[in-house]
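Lab channel / #folding
Pinned by the channel admin:
"Please post every new chain as: sequence first, then the structure tokens as a reply. Keep commentary short and put observations after the output so the thread stays searchable."

First post following the new format, from NK:
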Amino acid sequence: MSAKQLVYGPTFEEMLHPDKIKPEIRAKALEVAKSEPLSEYNLYNITWRNPEGRIYYVVLPKELTQVDANIVVLYSKDFPTRRHKVGATYSVCMEHQLRGDIEPGVHTLLWPSTGNYGIGGAYVAPRMGFDSLVLLPELMSTERFEQIEWFGARYEKTPGCESNVKEIYDRANELRKDPSIRVMNQFEEFGNYRFHYYCTGNSCVEVAADLAAKGIGDGKTAAFVSSMGSSGTIAAGERLKHEFQASRTVGLEPIQCPTIYSNGYGGHDIQGIGDKHVTWIHNVFNMDAIMCIDDIECKKGLQMLTEEPGWKVMSDRYGVPETSIREMSEVMGISGVCNVLGAIKTAKFYSLGSSENVFTIATDTMDRYGSVMKQLDETYGAMDEMEAAVRLGSIFHGAKLDWIREGTEHAKQCWHNLKYYTWVEQQGKTVEELDAQRDPEFWLAEQAKVEETDRMLREARGW
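Reply from TO:
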């Protein structure tokens, strides 16, 4: 397969600052963003920035959060797949292509996933010329499977729900026996980690400065809060600690599946997180606390933010600005609400003040959860204004300080040790590889590969 048949996309630096893309390519990418959503030029629209260069974020109204700290949400609805995981899948695919591990027309890329990563793979791989196969639990939302097909990929359903990752691994290990299959495993691929360390983390740094210029906050981050699926997003917290020494990193899990919190297990429905293991790319030594969030509260909270009875309660009873109501309804999905509830909990737990910023991510949007909301109505009845008021008061205003475990040195060692059972016993890693992750230099070396990868990509593209 000749190099001319390879499709190249942006560097990490160009995803962070798309104004550094060649002007003619940037112009073409912006042109096709809406008119040709399946064009390969949309790879150059993988960025946290809009066409004018503004980073996509909202500051949540304090009438909703009821905390003094500023809760800042970067949102991903304007990425090519409307989910930020497309950045991780592109980065993984791009790094493998540069190393010569994969060739379009020769290899099928297999994406083990519980949601948005698989959808990202379904989008990226065909744009780069690859056959794409997604493994996804059978109980994920109907909309997810529909979108995979629309992007030009295939899927295979595995048994169980969000937390049934072992079944995905088992099927991936069966399929990898085919020499044409290349497994792009988000849970161990450091391209995923690097996208969020560099692009998401640095975007948060720039937003903090932007807010300070507007008189909001002190120009720093007091905390970065992220639920863990692959544990790619939470790598942004490492970048923020390098920039702001006092910044905390807080991880979130479902109460129904508290793996890091208490070595727990179980099924849950915060789609995209809580995968019942500690991932290979998760630097648990960077995590200052683990908090657990109720999946039912996340779903009921999403419905409150995205349906008319909730809008009326927020506006009429609490004075939430209509612009904020509209923004929140457009950018939130179930895991986004989980992250917001975790951010509120973090602000309360650390007694953060009005000059302090808590950053989190809205990872996807409501358009993937219509079927979930319908199931919610069938189970609990349709939400009216009285029920919306109860949800606002109990879920958002009344966020509780239970299910919190701080990251002591002993706790971090325990969290790290959990990796042994998945990665050494089941997935072929060695004890020596696992022990290497205890050294901070291991993580610094992975971060430094951003510059090396960008150099290789510029050379391969010829510009």
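NK: DSSP finds 20 helices and eleven strands in the chain.
TO: also worth noting, The first strand starts at residue 57 and ends at 59.
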